[in-house]
């Protein structure tokens, strides 16, 4: 039976922009935005290509508390350039993570939460974006030794490209049914392999492969939640309380590689087969 009261009380997380998503997680009045739009930290490269830049370069960094625990929330605006990362936005994320590392080294426990709405590297700033994402990945690996790094993939852009690797390095990953997670986006795969291999317009097919429910069922994310602000916040609180996981997912490379060697690449694998492939004990 559908719980009408619950449906009426739900508040969408996906419908919020990056800044509103981040603010919705904090204790009231506890947060401060770092390098906000008034700092005018925008890409110097986009105007050279006749692209209007954004004053925060599509990345929001806010520090505060969640249930009196210090956190930094880094939120990517999927509506600006598809959430792609260039020099400035990437530097903001890497810098925020490095500051969190310093906090922990100075006995100030600080958890990082990444709200990932991104297609990966910004094509207009390719090499600069790649360098920034490498710094982000390195910082995640160092920070998660002190406190969990929590990633959230809510939708509707999803998380692809180099930042999907960053997502895979997170201590915990949360995803909604609307969210998607994969190394290459559907359009990229279709462009390289053809629509017979991967039809980017076939939405049910796309979600059956990279969608939130499938990724959770395959054990590639840790929590599958509804598009509800409070439910996402409570799941984050739960993972903060759990602390550092006993085994980081990215340290189980041998387990995942052994599974991939079992795939018959001569035919399209089904979503059910993917789930069955990854079931079983992990290293």
TrEMBL record:
GO terms for biological process: carbohydrate metabolic process; fatty acid biosynthetic process; malonyl-CoA biosynthetic process. Keywords: Metal-binding, Transferase. PROSITE patterns: COA_CT_NTER. SUPFAM superfamilies: ClpP/crotonase. Residues 1-256 form the CoA carboxyltransferase N-terminal domain. Pfam families: Carboxyl_trans. Transmembrane segments: none annotated. The keyword Zinc does not apply. InterPro entries: AcCoA_carboxyl_beta, ClpP/crotonase-like_dom_sf, COA_CT_N, Malonate_beta. One of its GO terms (molecular function) is metal ion binding. It comes from the Bacteria. NCBIfam families: malonate_beta, PRK07189.1. PANTHER family: ACETYL-COENZYME A CARBOXYLASE CARBOXYL TRANSFERASE SUBUNIT BETA, CHLOROPLASTIC, MALONATE DECARBOXYLASE BETA SUBUNIT. This is Malonate decarboxylase, beta subunit.
């Amino acid at each position: 039976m559908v719980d009408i009261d619950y449906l009426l009380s739900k508040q969408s997380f996906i419908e919020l922009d990056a800044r509103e998503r981040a603010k919705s997680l904090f204790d009231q009045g506890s947060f401060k935005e770092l390098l906000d739009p008034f700092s005018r930290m925008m890409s110097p490269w986009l105007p050279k290509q006749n692209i209007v830049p954004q004053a925060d370069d599509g990345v929001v960094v806010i520090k505060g508390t969640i249930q009196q625990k210090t956190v930094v929330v880094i939120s990517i605006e999927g509506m600006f350039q598809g959430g792609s990362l260039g020099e400035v936005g990437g530097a903001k994320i890497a810098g925020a993570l490095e500051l969190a590392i310093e906090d922990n080294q100075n006995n100030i426990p600080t958890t990082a939460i990444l709200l990932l709405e991104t297609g990966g590297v910004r094509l207009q700033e390719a090499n600069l974006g790649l360098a920034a994402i490498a710094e982000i990945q390195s910082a995640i690996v160092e920070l998660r030794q002190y406190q969990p790094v929590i990633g959230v993939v809510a939708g509707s852009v999803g998380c692809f490209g180099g930042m999907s690797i960053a997502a895979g390095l997170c201590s915990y990953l949360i995803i909604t049914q609307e969210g998607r997670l994969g190394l290459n986006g559907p359009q990229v795969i279709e462009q390289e392999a053809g629509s017979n291999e991967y039809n980017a317009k076939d939405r049910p097919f796309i979600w059956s492969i990279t969608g939130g429910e499938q990724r959770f069922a395959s054990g590639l994310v840790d929590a599958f939640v509804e598009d509800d602000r409070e439910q996402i916040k409570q799941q984050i609180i739960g993972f903060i309380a759990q602390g550092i996981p006993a085994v980081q997912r990215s340290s189980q490379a041998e387990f995942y590689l052994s599974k991939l060697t079992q795939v018959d690449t001569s035919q399209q694998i089904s979503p059910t087969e993917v789930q069955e492939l990854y079931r079983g004990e992990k290293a």
